[in-house]
Design a protein that fits this description.
Length: about 750
Amino acid sequence: MMLYYHGTVILSVILSTIFVVRWRRGISVHFPIIFVFIPVINLGYLSVANATSVNEALLANGIEYLDGCFLELFFFLYVLNFCKLKIPKICTGILMTIGSLLLFISINTGNNGLLYTHAELRKLNGVSYLVKTYGPAHTIYYGMIAFYLVANLSVIIYSMTRKNISKTNSILLLVVYLVIMLAFIGGKAFHPALQLLPASYLFSQIIFLIILSRLAMYDISENAISSLSENGTIGFATFDMKMRYLGCTDPAIKCIPELEYLYIDQPLTAENENFASILKCVDKIQISSDSSHFYVTQDDISYKITISRLYVGKRQKGYQLRTEDNTLEAKKMEALKLKERQKEMEAELLKLAKKTAESANEAKSSFLAQMSHEIRTPINAILGMNEMILHESNEPGIREYADNIKSSGRTLLSLINSILDFSKIEDGKMEIVSVNYDTAGMINDLENAIAERAKQKGLELIVEADKSLPRTLIGDDIRIKQIITNLLTNAVKYTEKGSIKLEIRNNGDSEGLQMIYVAVTDTGIGIREEEIGTMTEAFKRLEMNHNRNIEGTGLGLAIVTGLLNKMDSHLQVKSVYREGSTFSFILPQRVADYMPMGDYRTKERSSVAKAGKKEAAFTVPDAKILVVDDNKMNLKVAAKLLGLYGVKADMSSSGKDTLEVLSKKQYDIIFLDHMMPEMDGIEVLKEIKAKKLVPESTRIIALTANAISGVRDMYLSEGFDDYLSKPIETKEMEHILAKYLLSDNGNADNGADTEE
Ligand code: ADP
């Protein structure tokens, strides 16, 4: 039994030591007192059990009265504190005084009749114990015990009704108190020498330690809350590791009103939107970060709610929730979003505008194609008939008129072509088609194309071409010719006297490309320096008062720069006002044959050079030719032109009619118009091919007024053998006849040039 008393003392000292080790600031002051008293009281019990005389036992017995006198008092004060209740200081003072008096009496008076009327020491199994008859002071002591019993139980039961007090802790306190009371009342129920109280104290120490560790969380939250609650805009709430609610501040309730109805230790559930968001944030924190946030709007105020881990030292003990007024930022965000939305809207509008512009452009392109067809068809007739006049009339006056008609008609045609080309460049639809071309032939053609005009104006034409230029280059010869012809034409137009010079030089090679330097220099009116920058703008014409009589649209240079851009080059302009100008560019070209071209003049003269021929170069009277066109005038022109070559052509004015004719008769060449009502030329061609109406040797040539660039390729890809544009130029017609009839037609009168 002595072991029991020794054990209770040692264990209570150990538990008190644990308390000291785990001591931290913020723990209620009553706890250390309780943890000091218990080992002392237990020591009292041990001393009684060990006593050899009555007096010795009575002295030790006095220490046991620390329980009723002070332990109960501090327990009571703690319970009040726990329930956030306060009693007047005077009451505490009175209780302290009564406790001190009783303790004084119990230690000093002993067996003098005040506390005990009689006391004797007995021994059982080696354990001493006192047998006492109680005196009047002891009744006061019982009174005190009874008072504390009622007071403690009432406060603990009251605490259970409060939602902001942890119920678990209240129950633990109740259990401790009941155990102590039972041990007190039960006293020595089992054995006169065996006191139950020391064991119950041990039990209470253990429970207190548990309560303390639970309280750590509340203390932390309280500390945190008190430090933050001063700032009115920041709210704060805390939860333990299992998301049980520990406490919160008023600003937090303002932001999340549902917090107000939580009781301490209540686990948070997703019972409303805010709590669900909090729990979602906690889940997020588990996976990746230390904190996570969401936003709520309450009473027109926007809050940012941040959930983060709550640490005590290095160990996480729970979670903290922080609410802060975010209205300003939210407004900024809103403004930003609004701006973004505005930008999106603007982009959408821009897209819409672009789309509209694109469809307008498409409409424009198709309008231009249509217009080109519509204008070319009558001009075709005019120029065709005019060609007849030139062929048939020897009257000088009439020939002069006809020449004028021819030149004006051509000007009109080139104008339409310029507009079409420019609109194509603008739409990004101008394509560069690279083919092998003969360098010398190209220079020859250029010289021939401008020689006549230069001569008419009395200008000297100088052509300088490096002999070392590669013989065959790869590029879009048609477009290159167009660029240089435009520059040469301008040079002639804007020069009254002096010379025009075309220079084509070998500028070395770079990255496998041959650099060709091209320059057109004139001694003409020149351009003011300030106007050089804007002269390439579309429809821009300079010096209108001087140049009024010079034909032009202001599109030539715009087309030149557009085409050069497409060919990775750009136009350089140098000019001295009233002295002359030089337009130059460097053109990168691939090379097909590196042999130097030598003197370009020794090359055969090109087809352009032969343009002046009046008499047919050959006749092919046996050739079987069918011309298909819905326009009677066009048929007439074609028939007359073919007549020059001795051909008696058949005519057809519709697709349907053509199919019928073909089923009866075979032809060497069919000139097939594209745009016809009902069946158009392409449909007729497809039908002819599908039904195999003509032998393989028959050539079908597209005949069209459609002059948009790239159209030739379109016809070839549709299955036509060649392309002849309206108005039909005699030389082009001759070229086609020679190409397809002379090589295998021995009847030809004369071996005309069959170059291809
Ligand atoms: P246009 O059809 O009027 O010739 P261009 O686009 O070819 O249109 O040229 C634009 C303007 O640049 C011309 O109207 C003219 O004023 C000026 N210009 C072009 N080439 C020359 C040149 N060789 N000498 C002087 N001025 C020129």
